[in-house]
Design a protein that fits this description.
By secondary structure, this protein is mostly helical. Helix content is 95%, strand content 0%. The protein is built from one helix and no strands.
């Protein structure tokens, strides 16, 4: 049973990390677009 729980924890951890990275990338892109629009 422990063998089945382990990949799930790794997958949920990977998902949360991917989500944080995605949010940072979106904010970074919005910043760049906003700066290029102001010029």
């Amino acid at each position: 049973m422990t063998g089945h729980i382990h990949p799930c924890i790794m997958f949920s951890g990977f998902l949360s990390i991917a989500l944080v990275i995605a949010i940072i990338v979106v904010i970074y892109l919005l910043k760049i677009v906003h700066e290029s629009c102001e010029e």
